[in-house]
Amino acid sequence: MKKRKEMIQLIIGIIIVSLYLFPFIWMVLTSFKTQIEIFQTPPTLLPKEWSLAGYQSILNEGVLLYLKNSLIIAGGAALISIFLSVPCAYGLAKSKIKGKSMFLLIFLASQLFPATVLLTPLFLFFNRIGILNTYLAPILATSLGGIPFSVLMLRPFFQSIPKEIEEASTIDGCGSFQTFVKIILPVSFPSIAVCGAISFFFAWGDLIYSITFNRNQSLWPMTAGIYNAIGRFGIQWDNLMAFATLSTLPVILLFILLQKQIIKGLTAGAVK
Amino acid sequence: MSKNHVISYLLIAPAAIYMLLFVGYPLIYNMILSFQNMDLSTLNSGEVLFVGFENYRAIFQEEAFHIALRNTLVYTFVSILFQFIVGFLLALFFANKFKGSDGLRGFVMIAWLIPQTITALLFTFMLGSTEGIINQILLGTGLINESIGFLSNPNIALFSIIAVNVWIGIPFNMLLISTGLSNLPDDVYEAASIEGASNLQQIFYITLPMLKPVLLVVIMLGFIYTFKVFDLVFIMTGGGPINATEVLSTVAYRYSFVNFDFGLGAAAANILFIILFLISLVYLMMTRTEDVK
Amino acid sequence: MNFKKVLAFMSIIFLVACNNETATNLDSDVTTLTMWHYYTAAADELSYMVDRYNDENEHIQVELEFVPFDEIAKQLSIGVAGDVLPDIVMIDSVETAAFASIGVLKDITDSVIASGEIDYFLPGPVESTQVDGRYYGIPFEGNALALYYNEDIFAAADIGSVPETWDEVLEVSQKILDYDPSLTPFGMTAVRNEQSTFQFIPFLYSAGGTYDNLASEGSIKALSFVTELMNKGYMRQDFLNQDQDDIIQLFAAGNVAMMINGPWAIPSIEQINFSIGNLPKDQEFTSVLGGANLAVIEGQQAEQAVSFLEFFLEEENVREFARRANLLPVRTDVLESDDWSNDPMFSRFIEPMQVAVPRGPSANWPAISENIQLAIQRALLGEATPEEALQEAASKNEDLY
Predict the structure, then answer these.
(1) Which partners does chain C have (≥3 C-beta pairs < 8 Å)?
(2) pLDDT value at position B290?
(3) What pLDDT, on a 0 to 100 scale, did the predictor assign at position C16?
(4) Of B40-49, B220-229, C108-117, which gets the smallest average pLDDT?
(5) CA of A227 to nearest chain C CA: how many angstroms apart?
(6) Which residue of B has its CA nearest to C383?
(7) What is the DSSP letter of C26?
(8) Residue A272 — pLDDT band, cuts 50, 70, 90?
(9) ipTM here
(10) DSSP states of chain A as a string?
């Protein structure tokens, strides 16, 4: 009886998710069609002939290089986010200093501009410190999105860690730093994973920072590489969809790998 | 200062200084720029002057600005509302923990993981004209007789973009609510059931309040993030037709990078900033009361 | 544990990133110039020409940097603010005047006149490089708009000849609709950016209007015509959100019978049996100029950059590049030579190029154009009559002319 109920729920679930993900499915299917078939009316669902032309074309254009760049930039942003956010969130959670609100305000305030507004001043700044045309420029710029989110999410988590655990380890003779590394960190790995992953995802989608700070196209991430498919004289839709599909796969893979950790990490933050 | 205080500052400072540096500088730059008359011609003649609130006055007189402000508010509120509702419903559904529910929930995340510029291009492609797949399906099933101008009809265009934004935002809301739900202690629910509370009542009086901290963060950040939307609107409609989908960030962009009136663009961006700043203050006040509890 | 490995992996990547250095030019005898361009389709051919230049010139080496078309103006303005600019820039003909007027582009009048070549160039493109009679760039690529039409649809709808006047367009459009109501007879973009102004200008000028006299009778007549096309169903409302590229796709799929577009459309519509004619006229045949100029940025290496420009003033180089890249050349002598006048498709663009008017040129073109775009959209949506829409645009543009 219960099994039947589960079966029904599963079927309903599959239907709902398939409908919801239809645009994504459409994108992947289109990437295997020829340019001509894409604009046919009435449109076809499955490709009449499965064409790899889009994928071949973008492989020739160096999509693997763009993939590597995306990994570097998003990875770098995630690392910075973790190294800065974790201690900060811990400090904000545990400390008794005044002015915590002010720090929170700083983090929130940093989110209040759209990227296009930050472009010129950041460009000037990065130019002055000489990091234009390097990976560092987009890494730093995209990390600005992940850090505040991480701090705000991790803080309640650290607050929820029972004091008894820390006190117990102090009694055992550990210094506070040791406490932090040996006890707090392992417990917090899932939450840290969340912040790293989300910072990674934010940075993965960046386009404008790379284009503005890095004239050197060999440093461009996948999102920027799309411009090769959008010529001035017409969009190569099969290329574009192939590019789009490839841009999405790595983040999906990463999410699947880390799914358990991410969910654990978010769980902890919900309970005070 | 006690040793503990020093350690606290050492922990917090790096991140704070980092953010101050990389955002503080743009903030000040933008603030100053908004009070100047910097555009292409003044850059040439070198006569960039301070003009006080002139830029702000000019903006407030523009019809496009008021439309943009209204659009931005509508866009944000409706997006957040529906993202939340649908995300919540999905979270409830998957909380049934049937076989395969974890996997399916993972699949749902795909919508959120796709880079937004790509999603924008994809939906522009799907919603376009008679040949777009959405119109084709609607026409094919006989639901409509004429294709709908999802992005070209000024009355619908903004809501089409909102729909896309909701599509993007549902998974994240769902995920957070899901994990919150799964972590709630069962005994509270059991007690409530014994007392005779219905499922719906349980949701409202137990689940939601216990989820409040997470929900606050998610809605707050979601609000900020949605309010400053740029890519989605710019790629799908460019703010058109006429001004129908113009939002604050596209207006600012247009002033700065299309008309090259940098002072005006900076002022528009600042208005956006100030509105969000005020809202952030409200959020902080709300979490302060949480801390006190 | 999974996560530790991921963390280690990312740390390695991060270290790699930090050590990434850009190459430095060690040879001080050679001047390296950077040039911004926005070609994707013709990028290889441009590269070829630049390589040739580099081979022929020991002391000057040019490096190309790709900047997406929509980004060039924006990145230039950021570069101006940050004082980080290329030496040479490919800039859309319409934006040249704006950047010249802020002093970013070098006045190269003397070199241009000294070369003796400029007289061979088409007058429209040349005009787009000038501000107050001084040269701030050289024409590099030119294009114009013409009327594409689907021969098969015309035959099936029993249309004998390509429409040449506005009235004929109305007649032909109705015939097409009668033949097959699911077709869109006339494809013209009305999108919320420069492209709609671009496509409207020929109609404006053909009726005797001008960009700085938008409230004139001719101007109103032009907008009324386009509005009529929309109201009678010959154009789709969707064109308010679809640009020239989108319409090319529709034409290629056989859903649009006629379209206004430039020579770049040709490679994308090979499966259609199409022909090209002049843009339909009210009084005179006209067209509008698009294209790119090359300009030198004021700065330390400006002198050397100018000599690179001179390379592209020479007839044989203009010819070779245009031929390789399958583009229209901007020199009259090359354009009218066999290579193009014998090509069945490209030759149809010769006359439009010759009668094409430039947009502006004006340093305030972006703002002027924006008001025109708004007027077009208002009229097409029925929010205002063509007269009202244009009067509003005219008054908003008054200070900008």
Answers:
(1) A, B
(2) 55
(3) 53
(4) B40-49
(5) 7
(6) B242
(7) -
(8) very low
(9) 0.86
(10) -HHHHHHHHHHHHHHHHHHHTHHHHHHHHHHTS-HHHHT-SSPPSS-SS---HHHHHHHHTTHHHHHHHHHHHHHHHHHHHHHHHHHHHHHHHH---S-HHHHHHHHHHTTSS-HHHHHHHHHHHHHHTT-TTSSHHHHHHHHHHHHHHHHHHHHHHHHHS-HHHHHHHHHTT--HHHHIIIIIHHHHHHHHHHHHHHHHHHHHT--HHHHHH---GGG--HHHHGGGTEETTEE-HHHHHHHHHHHHHHHHHHHHHHHHHHHHHHHHHH--
Q: What is the pLDDT of residue C70?
A: 82
What is the architecture of the domain spanning C31-142+290-350?
3-Layer(aba) Sandwich (3.40)
Identify all chain A residues contacting B68, using CB atoms and an 8 Å cutoff.
Answer: none
Of the CATH numbers 3.40.50.620, 1.10.3720.10, 2.30.40.10, 1.20.1250.20, which one belongs to the domain with range B62-292? Answer: 1.10.3720.10
Shortest Cα distance, chain A CAs vs residue C81, angstroms: 7
Contact of B96 with A9, CB cutoff 8 Å: yes
Q: Which of A119, A139, A211 sits opposite C17 (nearest CB)?
A: A139
The parts of chain C modelled with pLDDT lower than 70 are 1-28
Do C146-288+361-400 and C31-142+290-350 have the same topology in CATH?
Answer: yes
Q: Residue A135's pLDDT is what?
A: 94
Using the Cβ of C134 and the Cβ atoms of chain B, whether some distance falls under 8 Å is answered with no
pTM metric for this prediction: 0.88
A79 contacts C14? CB cut-off 8 A? yes
- Interchain pair B241, C377: CB under 8 A: yes
- Which residues 273-332 on chain C approach chain B with CB closer than 8 angstroms? none
Percent of chain C, pLDDT > 90?
Answer: 60
Q: At what angle do helices A237-270 and B116-127 cross, to 10 degrees?
A: 120
Check pLDDT > 50 for residue A178.
yes
**Distance to chain A for B226, nearest Cα, Å:** 10
Can you give the residue ranges of every domain in chain C?
A: 31-142+290-350, 146-288+361-400
pLDDT score of B140 more than 80:
yes
Taking one residue from A and the other from C, the number of pairs with CB-CB distance under 8 angstroms is 109
What confidence category does residue A90 fall into, taking pLDDT thresholds of 50, 70 and 90?
confident
Q: What pLDDT does residue B203 have? A: 67
DSSP label at residue C232: T
pLDDT at B200 over 80: no
What domains are defined for chain A?
62-270 (1.10.3720.10)
> Which positions in chain C touch B128 (Cβ < 8 Å)?
238, 241-242, 246
Q: Which of B233, B260, B262 to mutate to test the interface with C (most CBs of C within 10 A)?
A: B260
The superfamily (CATH) of domain C146-288+361-400 is Periplasmic binding protein-like II (3.40.190.10)
Round to whole Å and give the CA distance between A49 and C367: 47
Chain A partners (3+ C-beta pairs within 8 A): B, C
Distance from CA of A128 to the nearest CA of B (A): 13
Where do the domains of chain B lie?
Answer: 62-292
Q: Does the beta carbon of C39 lie under 8 angstroms from any beta carbon of chain A?
A: yes
The partner residues of B261 in beta bridges, in order of sequence, read B39
Judge: A217–C65 Cβ closer than 8 Å, yes or no.
Answer: yes
Q: Does the beta-carbon distance from B152 to C193 stay under 8 Å? A: no
Nearest to C321 by CA among C115, C129, C44, C118: C44
What's the pLDDT tens digit per position in C85-96? 999 999 999 889
Task: For residue C90, list its beta bridge partners.
Answer: C294
